Every structure is written in C-alpha cells, then in structure tokens.
User: Fold these one by one.
Assistant:
Number 1:
Amino acid sequence: MKKRLFLIGSVLTLSGFAQDSALANLKSRLPEIFSACAAHYKALDAAVTPLMKNAKGQTMVPHGYKRGKKMYDMRRIEWWTSGHFPGSLWYLYEATGDGFFKERASVWTENLKPISTYKGNHDIGFMMYCSFGNARRLLKTEKYDHLLVEAANTLCLRFEPELGLIRSWGKTDDKKDFLVIPDNMMNLELLEWAAKAKNGEKRFAEVARSHADVTMKNHFRTDGGTYHVLNYSQKDLRVQEIRRGQGASCFTAWSRGQSWAIYGYTMMYRESGDKAYLDFAQKVADFAINHPNMPEDGIPYWDYGAPGEERDSSAGAIMASGLLELSKFVDAKKGAIYRDFAVKQLVSLASPAYFSEGDEVGHFLLKHGVGHKPGNSEIDTPLNYGDYYFLEALVRVRDM
Ligand code: GLY
C-alpha cells in the first residue's frame, strides 16, 4: 500500500512538474517573444502613421492587412476594432517599458476621444476600454475617467429594460428586430469599471449583470456551445429568430463567439464575485477545450462545426487570455487544465505557424485570423484584435 501511494505521488508530482515546466519554459522565452512583437509594432506604427488621416481628413486606425494587395486595411474610428491597435501599443509599453510605445499609444488613444458618444452599436466597450482603459491603468491617471463614464452612459442607451438586454446591432428605435451577439459580453467590462468609478453610477453594473444573466439563459445550447445572433421580439420578449451570423450554421458554435463567452463570463465573475458566472465560464470553456474538432495545437477552426477549414488565430488568442484568468479562480486541478491549454495555445501562436515573419502581413503579429467567412470577408488574414489578446495573454503569463 505504501509503495502504491508513493507511486501515485510520483506520478502526480511528475505531471505537475511537466505542467509547471511548460509555463516556465514559455516564461523564459517571453523576453525574446516581446522583443519580436516590439520590433513588429515599431515597423507597423511607422507604416500606418502616414495613413492616420484619409483623403477626407477622417481619422483612421489599422485594422488588418490585405496580403494580396500589400495594403493596410485602415478603418474609421467608429469601427469596432479601433481600440485594439492603441491597446496593443499599451500592452507593449507594459511588457517592455519602452517609452516609444507609451508615446505612440497615447497618440492613437487620444484619436478616439469622439467615440465616447458613439451610439451606432454596442462595441463602444471594446473601443474605449482597450484604449483609454489601458491608458488609465498604466499611466495611473484619472484624466480619461469622464470619457469612460460618458461611454458607459452611451452604451446604456442601447439597454432595453423589458428584455434586460443591450442591443448589439441595429438602431435603438427598431421595433421589429433586436439583435444580440455573444461578443456583447466583452463590452460589459466598461460598465463594471464605470459602476465603481468615482464619477460613475451603480446602475451600470445592474445593466451589465442583467445582460449577462439573460444571455446566459438564452444564448447557449445545453452543451455550452454558443449561437451567434439571437433576434429577440420586443412584443412577447422571446427569441424570435436564430441567425448564423459569422458562424457556419445555426447548429454549430462560431469559434470567436465561444472565446468571447469564455473571456466575458470569467471577467463577469472577477467583477461581480457571482459564482453563477464562474460555473458558466467553465461550461463554455469545457465545450471548447474538449470539443472533438479542437485541433491538437489548440487553435480552433473558425467554427467548431467546420473542421479542416481555416483556423482563427484570434479565437485562439482571446481564448488563451480568458483561460489564463479563469485558471486563477478554480481549484488547482481544473486551474492546471485551463492554464496548460492556454500555454499550449500561446506556444502555438508564437511559433512560425502563426507568428509572422518580416513584413509578410505588414508587421501585424499573428497570421491566420478569420473575420467573417460567410460574408467572404477577412479569411486567413491578420486581425488587430488577435494581436491585442495575444499580447494581453503574454502579459498575463509574465504576471503569473
Ligand atoms: N465582434 C465582432 C467579431 O468578433 O467579429
């Protein structure tokens, strides 16, 4: 009996050691990885700074790169990803301490000031919190707080109390359709912050929690897989339609949506302490990790129902960052599973299979993202938000 116990003990110790060593190995490589990321983003910033204003004088932000045309895909500041490029510069400042990134992050962030009152969709959380949210955190300044609280107010204009939901897309006076997507979970972090801010209001957290609760009830199948678009009826307060949206079908889970859910419910647990969100974060994470179509390297196909098609590196990066945070909130055994999976994903993303070489994708970091395959748009391409969550995840590894 004694011998047997000893053996079990050794196995546990050995497997624990293997896990720790994967993390330790990635940690030891971080200086080299951050240095490669920094070199890419210095070159990217130099290439896109002359494109900051378009011919009409409108302010633009780099969203991606059109490889075939060797052209940057610059988008207006109202585009949902406008906060991710400045946010990546902030993470590079945090990772390297290089003042260059602080200066450039400040410039690109300040360009987004007009967004605090943008009412066109729910993405104001992404746009404002990835940029100004990181600025306030790293500069330890309150000078942007009024803008962030204003943005939270603007987002709440899309909240419909009868449904208990924020409308993701569409006009706020549309009586026929009320569209909600799991991506919306990410915009709740702005509300959670604003509820605690000096000049904020408690109701922001009430809106965030209501949205998270109703989404948890309706937006997922029993196995934890997500729908992309739900259309709610404002007459009888029920789901009137399921749309495949950016996913392969209404019956499969769109990979990035699943990653938004993992990250979003983990964040909601961090902010609220509500255990229901922690349980749910595990359910949606387990769906992804244990999915039979999850590839060996941990980077999902663009939809869990599209094995053999393109991978989505952005879905892998968002999931890795979410899993690293989730790993801290659960018991040691489960925590090791989430942490190891995230480490595997990051090792894959940092490898030549996904990490770009020279200017092959205009000095964005990650290749092989998929924006909207059913819309035949942005397939196998770099995406600025893939880079953002990759950098965030690496900083989370550093701080573990
Ligand atoms: N939030 C839009 C997307 O993930 O493509």
Note: The pocket of glycine is lined by residues 80, 183, 246, 256, 371 (CB under 6 Å).
Number 2:
Amino acid sequence: MAKKKSMPDSALMEGYMPQHIAIIMDGNGRWAQQRLLPRTLGHRAGMSALKKVVQTCDELRVPFLTVFAFSTENWKRPETEVNYLMNLLVEFLHRELDELHRNNVQIHVLGDYEATPPKCQDEIRRALALTRHNTGLIFNIALNYGSRREIVDAAKSISKRVLSGEIQLDSIDEHLFAQCLYTAEMPDPDLLIRTAGEKRISNFLLWQVAYAEIVVSDVLWPDFTPEELYRAIKEFQGRDRRFGGLKK
Ligand code: FPP
C-alpha cells in the first residue's frame, strides 16, 4: 500500500510562510556510502527527494524555490560523476516537465548552462520555453552556478553601462546591483536550508542570503522528506527576524 502522505499542521499553514526557500542539497555521496552503493545512486535518490520537495513547496504556496544542483566547482569531481549528474538533470526534466508545467511551475536556471553538454542545454531550453508564462511556483535550478562569478558578472555589466554613458557612477546602488544578478526581480531567500549537517554557504547566493535564516538539517539529502521541510519552516517561523534593527 502506498505510504500516506503526512499533512502540514494548521499552525504551520497559519504561520508566515517563507517567500523564497534556497536549498543546498548535501549528503548524496554519504547516503550512498552508508549503503555501500556508488555515489551516483546517492544522486539518483537525491533526485527523488528533490521531486517531492518541489511538489511540497508548490502545495504550501511558497512562491520561490532555488536548489543548488551543480556548482562551478563541481567540475573538479571525476568525469563519470559529472556526466551522471548532467544526465540526471536531463532525465529529471524529461520525466517531470509535463507535470511541472501542468502544476503551473515556472522553471529558471541560474548559472552558465551553455557550458553543459548539448543534450542538457536542449532539455533546459525546452523547459524554460514551455514554462515561461506559468504563474505558480518559481523553481530555480542553480546549475554550473557560483556566486562569486555571478557577482563579478554583475560588476562587469554595470561597468559596461557606466563606460557607455548609459548610467552614472552615482546611480549604482544596492537595488541596481541586485537587478544585475541572476535573481533579478526575485525576492532574496528568507530561508536557507542546508542538509547533511554542514555549516557552510559554499559560494551559494552570497549576496542574496544576507538576511536569510539558516536552518541546518542533519538529514542527508536523499532522506529529506516533506516532513523535514515542514520542520525547517517551523524553525524559520519561530525565529525572531530583526534585519539589524531591534525587536518589535
Ligand atoms: C551534494 O552531495 C550534491 C550535489 C553536488 C548534487 C545535487 C544533485 C542532486 C540532488 C541530484 C538531482 C538534481 C537535479 C537537478 C536533477 P555530495 O555529493 O557532495 O554529498 P557528500 O558530501 O555526502 O559527498
């Protein structure tokens, strides 16, 4: 019999829902290692966990979800693992795209996906084109993404606009800078979740998480269930957010 899905309790639903959840999905390798399986199967199990988390964010009406799928540093991994991850993304989009589209999810890719294998690029372009007018959950996949590179790209594009005379040096402010990041027009994440117990940001959305509440879960990513997500949101709802000011 299919396992009955647990529902979020009413206190969670009545509390303030995060507007943008960002997730560092860590621990796939350790999950596989614990089971004496190849690391790649950890990533495959991670894909199943991701599918459920996207569905749950959609059901909870969280407007934005950003997941770290592949960093600019992940190219250093063995070629077989890199290829597996790229193929997994192709498989994920191929299998899930219709359902994501039916659920009105709009897909974005943050990062230089033009450096990924051609079939990956094709699948991404198809997903972006199909979902671009959707008005539900904005689902950002950070792929070949590095936050420092994103910031340098923003600095370059602003410099070009200054040099061409389009804008004045004095008109550069935080708002303009944020509009030149890959997340332009999106609210900053208010909740950053990292799994597998690691307490690092790992070059992920460095500018955007300036005031995010960080929740570190000891659970390895493939074991991260909707219930773990509810737990993280509850922890977020219990935090006192002051943005550098004083308690209201
Ligand atoms: C970190 O775990 C995880 C990754 C580098 C990849 C994340 C990818 C997925 C969850 C697969 C599905 C994603 C998509 C978009 C289809 P790790 O390998 O560093 O784990 P470890 O620290 O235990 O070795």
Note: The mean pLDDT is 96.
